[in-house]
Amino acid sequence: MNKKNFFLTLAPLEQAFCKNYKGEIIHLFKKNLSLLKGLNSFSYKITKKNSFWHNKDNLIHDNNYLQNFERRFFNEFYKSLNDTLGVSHPKKYWEIFLGKITCTIIYVLYERWQTIIDIENNHEFLETKILKKKDGSLSLQNGSDLNKNIANSDLFNFKINSEIIRYRSTIKYKEVEVQDIKKNLFNQKNESKKNFFQIKYIKFKYIKIFFDIIKKQLLNLQYLIFNKKNYYIYISPKIKSETSWILRNKFKQPDLKFKFKKISLNLTFSETLRKKLSSNLNYKPSNNFESFFREKIIEMMPLCYLEGYQNIISNNKENKEKKLPKVMFLQFDEIMSDNASYLEWVSYNKIKGSKIFLIQTGGDIFTPKLEIREEFAKNKIYDVLFHYGKKNLGDKIIGAGFERVFFNEEVLPNYKGNIILALYPGDGYSTGLLSTTKPFQDDWNEYLDDKISFLENLTPEIREKIIIRLKKRHHFNDPNRDYFKMEENIKTRFPDVKFDDYKESLNELVPKTSIIIVTHNATTLLETLSKNIPTLMLMDFNKYKLSKTANELYKELVRIGILHFKAASAAEKLLSVWKDPKEWWNSKEVQGIRQKFCEEYAYYPKNYKEFFLKKVSDQINQIL
Predict the structure, then answer these.
(1) CB-CB contact of 269 with 306 (8 Å)
(2) 167, 292 in Cβ contact below 8 A?
(3) Is residue 498 a contact partner of residue 196, using CB atoms and an 8 Å limit?
(4) In angstroms, rounded to a whole number, what is the distance separating the alpha carbons of residues 589 and 17?
């Protein structure tokens, strides 16, 4: 055996694997590792290699370069889009319309690029298998399809890695072919229209809801006819209905209806259009990656933004003929979405003078040391962001309280009830706009191992009370709704453990629950602490990097026993309090730190309506 020879597997697919290799194999993934070993029983060694950004310090370092590169590139890219599509929009229009998808492609390609370079720097005499080149095979119909394939398609990521190997020409490779590559990718045509949440029984008082609807419609008619203001505020239908209602009532605004049609899923890749875009792009790369990216962005930009651009403009014509909003109230996630028609309308309104007001969605925006989505949105998109905390963070980020839980029915925990273990099923690959507190790629294997270790450290009596709530992020029939097979692996190790059936929301489960165990730095932590539900958190913030402010507060959570970096520590705490967490949770020290944390990240005052409207009114009045 020659120990100097190395084979690099670029995807957890049999087509990418070697057979009976006599040297050392470098494997980028834990998935299908047993198959790889079975095909190479005589190999010297199989070494698992993590992403270069597995070390969050590398992500922070590379982000400085990528932000600079994105600015330099986009300064030329938007001009080439104008020239190619026959329009003359300012840079701001394009930043909102397709800046996020451009940024995603930059970060995705650079993460793969850096990982391969890191392997090259540490292993000589490398060889691999790559996919045979097929023009246009990286271009998908829309941004949603692109993001789904980046996140979870082994085949699509095999294609990306193959393009990097081919371009660099520093690793010996053999081309392999996969038939009908496009048919094996995820796209909207293959997606069931069924809602990914199970249809649940809805409890409501029929008469009260009926009269509430009538009342709202009559008031809406009144605002539309009699109380015509000299300004119009657009309030997205994605915003909670109760929040939307108090905003409309406060500012006497009608609920105008807009239709954002979906773009055809049968757009055809135009080689002529893409070549024209490339020839119009006057960007001079400063290194090999930038040269590679300049080539790949032309191919990877989803068809709806280029081939479908005129369809979008035509579909939005009626929307643009309606009243121009003075302010657009949107959810943060909407502006980071892939709804091209909607984003084009928002972009158009912005350059016509509309202000963009965002309401925070998601609980991990301000706690990480680096949160790329928020940086992008702050620098390029919003005028004001209303965040979940109490205090303002400068002129653009306004503390308006934890709007997400406003209007929820107040509930109390049952200190003798069940224990909920909230788990988060991650994506298979880096999806680009990351943060330093969000696991990605094989971080999730470590995440799963940690949670299994936690369960192992508990007594059978406690495990009997645990209900695992695995966050539902995808449709039930999505083949990658649980890419790392967390449910399957946990059930194999603990066959009797119970999983939640999702017939009730988390808020509805609280009266039956004594403790909620949070395992991901996201909204669930904010919900449980703001509602004063006994909470444990298991996450290693030695690995995941917090902002300076968050780091100080999370140290306090460690001190009072809420936050634990290690599974054994979290299990030990649960063992000590599970029979009656009330005494620990209601202690003066725990409640003081909880309230301090919530004021920063999840403020829930008793007069939340007045508090929220005051913060919004102050911003509205500045622009009227």
Answers:
(1) no
(2) yes
(3) no
(4) 56
Here the tokens at position 515 are 């403790």
Q: Around Cβ 469, how many Cβ atoms within 10 Å?
A: 19
Q: How many CB atoms lie within 10 A of CB 277?
A: 20
* Residue 419 near residue 578, CB atoms below 8 Å: yes
Alpha carbon distances (Å) from 200 to 183, 203, 360, 407, 473: 34, 9, 27, 20, 17
pLDDT digits (tens, 9 = 90+) for 422-475: 999 999 998 888 999 999 888 999 999 999 999 999 999 999 999 999 988 766
Write out pLDDT tens, residues 217-241.
555 555 555 455 678 999 999 999 9
Which of 130, 112, 108 is CA-nearest to residue 120?
112
Cα 298 to Cα 295: distance, rounded to the nearest angstrom: 6
pTM of the model: 0.92
The mean per-residue pLDDT over the stretch 555-562 comes to 98
> What pLDDT is recorded for position 303?
96
Question: pLDDT by residue (tens digit) across 569-617?
Answer: 999 999 999 999 999 999 999 999 999 999 999 999 999 999 999 999 9
254/217 Cα distance (integer angstroms): 10
- φ, ψ (nearest 5 deg) of residue 456: -65, -30
Q: Which residues contact 161 (CB under 8 A, 6 or more apart)?
A: 10, 11, 112, 116, 130
CA 183, CA 175: separation in Å to the nearest integer? 20
Residue owning tokens 């004063």:
532
The pair of three-digit structure tokens given for residue 615, joined into one six-digit string = 């913060």
Q: How far apart are CA 429 and CA 154, in angstroms?
A: 9
